[in-house]
Design a protein that fits this description.
There is one protein chain. This protein has 92 residues and is an alpha+beta fold. Helices cover 34% and strands 22% of the residues. It has a single domain (8-89), classed as YlxR-like (Hypothetical Cytosolic Protein, Chain: A, 2-Layer Sandwich), CATH 3.30.1230.10. It has helices spanning 53-62, 64-69, 75-89; strands at 8-10, 17-19, 24-28, 34-37, 45-49. The strands form two sheets. A three-stranded antiparallel beta sheet has the order 4-3-5. It has a two-stranded antiparallel ribbon with strand order 1-2. Strand 1 and strand 2 (17-19) form a beta hairpin. This is YlxR domain-containing protein. InterPro entries: YlxR, YlxR-like_sf, YlxR_dom. Residues 9-82 form the YlxR domain.
Length: 92
Amino acid sequence: MKRRKIPLRKCVACQEMIPKQQLIRVARSPQGEVSMDPTGKAAGRGAYLCGNKDCFSLAKSRKALDRALNTAIPEEVYERLELEWIELKDPE
């Protein structure tokens, strides 16, 4: 039997290829709203971040999410995304 390939995606901050299920997807909806996508199935353009806290900070400082999602992301949206990201990493 053939082994099933594991889908890989690249973290926009650290540029590492990581299995898709270990990454967190950030999506830009067709209406232009940017949010975390824990299911990975939201409609719109997506970018992936690994679970490392440094990667989120790096993506923010390098504007990696802005480039990957083809949109300008305001500072308050980054703050909201960071809170959502923390909730996804520590769901307590």
